[in-house]
Write a structure and sequence with these properties.
single chain, mainly alpha, flat, about 80 residues
């Protein structure tokens, strides 16, 4: 259990630093939320694990939508 609590501390710190450097929505943030979900699940905090998983999914969906729009704009520029 102690190692999971240590991992939780480091993932939370990494999330804070990454958000301050690169904003709220990028793949690194989504990955950190996924990692936090795994740790929370291991600690038996299922609600917090679910919240982190949902945040990761929301960010990933947002990134993909932006990428699809960017691809469409590039294709339109080519034509």
């Amino acid at each position: 259990m102690k190692e999971h609590e240590k991992a939780l501390k480091y993932f939370i710190k990494a999330l804070e630093i990454t958000k301050s450097v690169s904003g709220e929505t990028n793949s690194d943030i989504a990955d950190l939320y996924d990692n936090l979900a795994i740790v929370y699940e291991s600690l038996g905090n299922h609600q917090k694990a679910l919240e982190c998983s949902e945040k990761a999914l929301d960010i990933t969906d947002s990134i993909r939508q932006d990428a699809h729009l960017s691809i469409a704009e590039s294709n339109r520029s080519i034509q």
